[in-house]
Write a structure and sequence with these properties.
Shape: globular
Mean pLDDT: 91
Order of helices and strands: EEEEHHEHHEEHEHEHHEEEHEH
Radius of gyration: 20 Å
Number of helices: 10
Largest sheet: 9 strands, mixed
Structural class: alpha/beta
Strand order of the largest sheet: 5-2-3-4-9-8-7-10-13
Strand content: 15-25%
Oligomer: single chain
């Protein structure tokens, strides 16, 4: 007999010793001198600080691009928080001075619920009715300090930016991202491979393409490791959503209009169904549904001058493999 799920409901309050009372988005900061962003959170008094490092520490001189970057960084702060929220699955979510309107609340509620779908399934949890990014403004979200240092509660809308017509391409070390990269090159688009992390495999595949690689480093808070060691909930999070937000920031820093991923058609399909017959998609943040929602958020809160998309969305696994079979220069890696 299947073990019943533990129902974690906002209305019923804390129902497990493992559950936190409040999860807070406490602060967000970027140091343009060293190219380092710090994303800060708090779970019932436990402070967590994540660091994102952009190599070469580029900083645009254009004020509008700087402002758009801080909007993107604030979005990253909200998206990356899912890595820490899952540890305590708090009854209350406090976004602090970050203004959340209806569109942003819908995006975040869906991302956290569906992005944690597999996590909930594996941990035998029912998160329905728990996750609630409440609306606290009727105005578009955004809070930028033009000095380029920190955030305030001031309201701002998306910023127009004029970025070069070139593509920052997310690399994952497999055939899909290589096919995507080659298709763009064949179309005459200037490309720049980028990744998050230190993967040797990704470095080898990009080297085979004869291109440099931008490696952005993400350092999770060491306090999360301690929480996990103490028995906090752990499991799958929508990493592609987090990496998408990181590359969005990178596109503004390095100057790329197109942020391109290699998510194919099967990413839309459920990878399993729960006992109630509800679809659970391990690849939710690679799906068309996420892509469309993320694009809407970018246009509304960051800039209409940035295009985020997956080039391989129309293609099946077989179609991609067929293309890759002709790319002999990459087969050794």
């Amino acid at each position: 007999m299947t073990e019943p799920r533990l129902k974690l409901d906002k209305q019923s309050g804390t129902v497990s010793d493992m559950q936190a009372g409040c999860f807070s988005f406490s602060a967000c900061h970027y140091d343009p001198g060293i190219g380092e962003a710090t994303l800060s959170y708090e779970v019932d008094g436990c402070k967590l600080h994540e660091k994102i490092t952009f190599p070469w520490a580029p900083w645009p001189v254009d004020a509008s691009r700087q402002a758009a970057f801080f909007q993107a960084l604030e979005l990253l702060h909200l998206v990356a928080g899912i890595s820490y929220y899952k540890a305590g699955l708090a009854c209350e979510i406090d976004t602090g001075e970050v203004k959340i309107d209806g569109l942003m609340a819908t995006f975040l509620n869906e991302l956290y619920l569906k992005g944690l779908g597999e996590f909930a399934y594996i941990n035998r949890l029912d998160l329905t009715g728990l996750i609630d990014f409440g609306v606290n403004t009727d105005e578009p979200a955004g809070s930028v300090d033009p000095s380029g240092q920190s955030f305030s509660s001031k309201q701002n809308t998306a910023h127009p930016v004029d970025l070069p017509e070139r593509a920052l391409v997310a690399m994952g070390g497999g055939k899909d991202s290589l096919v995507c990269l080659q298709m763009l090159k064949d179309a005459g688009v200037e490309v720049q491979p980028a990744c998050v992390g230190r993967s040797t495999l990704i470095g080898e595949t990009v080297k085979a393409a004869g291109l440099p690689l931008i490696r952005i480093q993400r350092e999770l808070s060491p306090e999360l490791t301690k929480l996990n060691a103490g028995g906090a909930w752990n499991g799958h999070v929508p990493v592609t959503a987090i990496n998408s937000a990181i590359l969005l920031c990178a596109g503004l820093l390095y100057g790329y209009r197109y942020i391109v991923f290699a998510n194919e058609s099967s990413a839309n399909e459920a990878t399993l169904k729960d006992e109630q017959g509800q679809a659970v998609n391990h690849q939710y943040s690679k799906s068309l549904a996420f892509e469309q929602s993320f694009v809407e958020v970018i246009k509304q809160y960051v800039s209409p001058g940035i295009d985020y998309f997956s080039l391989l969305r129309p293609y099946s696994e077989i179609a991609i493999t067929r293309r890759f079979s002709e790319m002999n220069g990459y087969h050794q890696v």
